[in-house]
Q: What sequence folds into this?
């Protein structure tokens, strides 16, 4: 079953590989997008002698909206969906399948690796933004607590989204399309549907643990809804992560992947 | 013969497309060639053999154990897949070391084995280059190195010589023969007859998902009774030999090549021919210097089997 040595070997190999990849470099750069916008706008304002953007307000509104309503979903989709998806598409899965490492070890090692990289890029971007936008009171206990809560919310959200997209990647060939529909279609639409529809999204639980009020949904679905109690939302995100990880493990164990034309 | 791989009634479909059909076979130690044209079902068989696919019907065992989802079994199996597929952003060294570590070796042992494997296939100088910068032949050799890194009892190689330069072909074939001497099992597939022929006489011919023949080339040849065997005899009295052979009904055709002191004949009963040839030689004092079978190679057997 789970062999920790194999998990470690797989984790280290893929983490190193991922940090060298263009995709990771892009996402790390992308995580600085709000920071660049903040610096750019304040630069222009300084030139025009107008009052600068309030750092803490930009961090809470613009920055966190970017991270929690776009970045986390995208990074989870493109990394989580690649845990098995890339192996299948590039036909490298065979190197892991025909090895003494169990499928559970392979999945655990790879998932942890992809999660590490996704969360690191989020952490780097959000923390940098916090440091710059709260430069005058970086060590203010209140702000520090908010930052820690945001990082924790990001941690759980990436965990939940990644495990969901990983399952889609294990199940379907073109999982990214379905993932995009889930993020930009269903998660918004579900907020205005009656009944328990919004509970069948991840964003519902995620926004319940963010210590900052963010608009729920996206675009035309952008409005406010009630939050779930904090610990209930935390437990739900952990449950979602575990459920989809277990589902992926089951699919990976049972499914056979036809990697090429049969000859 | 100790059976290493045993397949029973293996059938596999991809939707409505048949991959292999009712393949039953046993493979023992030594080099086993799997031969067939592209699309014959070789790779499907090897994918079932290496646990990538489950047969729809039948079962396969290696060392007496089922294969699918039996990862412990792969401690004793080395596999070189057909795909030219590698991880991007990874060097040859990182890849081979990763493979060694997956086999459970300590870091020190893994490094030792990775270095030895790269040395064996001549990639030491290029080990720190990204695999994406390797030539196809180098990538192929790297895959081969990853298949032999654990001294496995069973090595499965799917088209291992594709894209490999002639010098390394010879070296790899030599290595395979050494593995055979060590008592290991090597299963190697190819659609190129000369490749297989240079490695082994023991072949499985697969075509349209079925095993057409399995065994020694000569034994396979003998199975095909209705297919005429061409035999060339060089002797001092070719005309006299031809005269003596004409009356026999197992002789189908005789060509006389006076200039070369040779006759080329076709027979559908090879054993009977050789029995009688001895009698003729003894009775007419013909001195035979050479007997050969010009069509006794894989190509002719294979062509015949496919056309049959």
A:
């Amino acid at each position: 079953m789970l062999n920790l040595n194999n998990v470690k070997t797989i984790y280290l190999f893929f983490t190193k590989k991922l940090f060298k990849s263009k995709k990771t470099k892009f996402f790390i750069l992308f995580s600085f997008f709000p920071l660049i916008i903040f610096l750019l706008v304040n630069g222009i304002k300084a030139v025009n002698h107008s009052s600068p953007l309030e750092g803490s307000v930009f961090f809470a509104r613009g920055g966190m909206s970017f991270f929690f309503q776009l970045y986390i979903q995208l990074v989870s989709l493109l990394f989580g969906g690649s845990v098995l998806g890339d192996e299948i598409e590039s036909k490298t899965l065979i190197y892991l399948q025909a090895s003494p490492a169990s499928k559970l070890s392979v999945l655990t090692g790879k998932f942890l690796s992809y999660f590490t990289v996704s969360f690191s890029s989020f952490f780097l971007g959000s923390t940098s933004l916090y440091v710059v936008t709260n430069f005058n009171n970086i060590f203010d206990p209140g702000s520090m607590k908010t930052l820690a809560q945001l990082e924790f919310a990001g941690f759980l959200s990436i965990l939940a989204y990644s495990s969901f997209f990983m399952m889609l990647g294990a199940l379907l060939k073109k999982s990214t399309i379905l993932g995009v529909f889930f993020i930009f279609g269903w998660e918004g639409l579900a907020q205005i549907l009656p009944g328990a529809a919004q509970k069948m999204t991840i964003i519902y639980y995620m926004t319940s643990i963010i210590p900052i009020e963010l608009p729920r949904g996206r675009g035309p679905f952008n409005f406010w809804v009630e939050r779930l109690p904090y610990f209930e939302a935390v437990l739900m995100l952990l449950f979602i992560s575990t459920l989809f990880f277990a589902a992926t493990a089951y699919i990976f164990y049972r499914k056979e992947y036809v990697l090429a034309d049969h000859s | 013969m100790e059976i290493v791989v045993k397949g029973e009634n293996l059938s596999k479909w991809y939707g409505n497309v048949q991959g292999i059909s009712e393949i039953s076979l046993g493979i023992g130690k030594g080099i086993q060639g799997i031969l067939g044209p592209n699309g014959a079902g070789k790779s499907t068989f090897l994918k079932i053999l290496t646990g990538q696919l489950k047969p729809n019907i039948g079962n396969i065992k290696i060392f007496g154990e089922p294969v699918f989802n039996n990862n412990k079994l792969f401690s004793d199996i080395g596999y070189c897949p057909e795909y030219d597929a590698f991880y991007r952003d990874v060097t040859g060294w990182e890849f081979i070391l990763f493979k060694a570590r997956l086999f459970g070796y300590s870091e020190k042992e893994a490094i030792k084995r990775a270095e030895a494997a790269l040395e064996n296939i001549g990639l030491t100088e290029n080990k720190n280059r990204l695999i994406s910068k390797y030539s196809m032949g180098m990538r192929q050799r790297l895959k081969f190195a990853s298949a032999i890194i654990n001294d496995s009892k069973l090595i499965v190689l799917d088209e291992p010589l594709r894209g490999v330069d002639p010098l390394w072909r010879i070296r790899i074939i030599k290595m395979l023969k050494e593995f055979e001497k060590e008592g290991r099992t090597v299963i190697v597939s190819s659609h190129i007859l000369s490749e297989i022929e240079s490695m082994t006489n023991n072949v499985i011919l697969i075509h349209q998902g079925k095993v057409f023949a399995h065994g020694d080339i000569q034994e396979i040849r003998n199975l095909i009774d209705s297919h005429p065997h061409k035999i060339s005899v060089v002797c001092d009295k070719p005309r006299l030999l031809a005269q003596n052979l004409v009356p026999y009904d197992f002789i189908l055709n005789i060509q006389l090549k006076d200039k070369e002191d040779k006759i080329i004949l076709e027979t559908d009963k090879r054993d009977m021919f050789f029995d009688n040839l001895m009698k003729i030689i003894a009775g007419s004092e013909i001195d035979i210097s050479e007997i050969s079978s010009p069509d006794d190679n894989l190509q002719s057997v294979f062509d015949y089997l496919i056309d049959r």
About this structure: Chain B touches chain A through 41 residues (CB under 8 Å). The first strand of chain B starts at residue 3 and ends at 14.
